[in-house]
Amino acid sequence: MGNRLDMLRKLGFTEYQSHVISTLIGKELSAQQLSKESKVPITKIYSVLQMLVNIGIVKGVDTRPKMYSALNLDSIIDFVISKKEKNLIELKNSKDMILNFLREDNESVIFDESEFLKEVRKLMTSAKEKIYINFDEYLLSKLKSDLNAIKNNGVEVVIGAIPK
Question: Are strands 67-70 and 58-61 parallel, antiparallel or unpaired?
Fold first, then answer.
């Protein structure tokens, strides 16, 4: 199971997502059973399942209790490849915008907090899959409802340092 977990992590899934997917492959389990077998705390299992259901990796069957199953490994890998290809196309299509933004001659300084937050919100709403944000508590509190809305739309929000 360790190798499967490592590969799922390399595909971009979180630790808990990897444990859930790995445990569910070839099985149909309730959230309670899944928590026990995957070692994902019951306090986290429902949010992990909801995220995986939202992106289409896990299916839920409306029974009592609700049962969950995962796509097979081939389908999961195809899904990840498709997402990465889509992100690459978006990046290629955004190249000119990114270059203009990064060029020194197009620098602009935003002095007003509301203007700054407006620009940040505009950038956040364009996120399709994942957003990294690193602000102090004050600015995070100003963006809390926006961040929750983005999460509810299936975009992963990572608060803290941007990975290398």
Answer: antiparallel
Are the C-beta atoms of 45 and 24 separated by less than 8 Å? no
Between the CA of residue 155 and those of 41, 119, 124, 126, 146, what are the distances in Å? 22, 18, 10, 10, 12
0.85 cut: is pTM over it? no
Report the candidate in 157, 141, 161, 159 with the shortest Cα–Cα distance to residue 149.
157
Q: How many other CB atoms sit within 10 Å of the CB of residue 35?
A: 22
Instruction: Tell me the two tokens of residue 24.
Output: 């569910």
Please write the tens of the pLDDT for every residue from 14-34: 999 999 999 999 999 999 999
Q: Mapping DSSP to helix (H, G, I), strand (E, B) and coil, where does residue 25 land?
A: coil
pLDDT at 163: 47
How far is the C-alpha of 122 from the C-alpha of 73, rounded, in Å? 36
pLDDT tens string 51-99: 999 989 999 998 899 999 999 989 999 999 988 888 888 877 777 776 6
Domain residue spans in the chain? Answer: 2-75, 108-159
Minimal CA–CA distance to 17: which of 82, 128, 25? 25
Domain 2-75, architecture per CATH: Orthogonal Bundle (1.10)
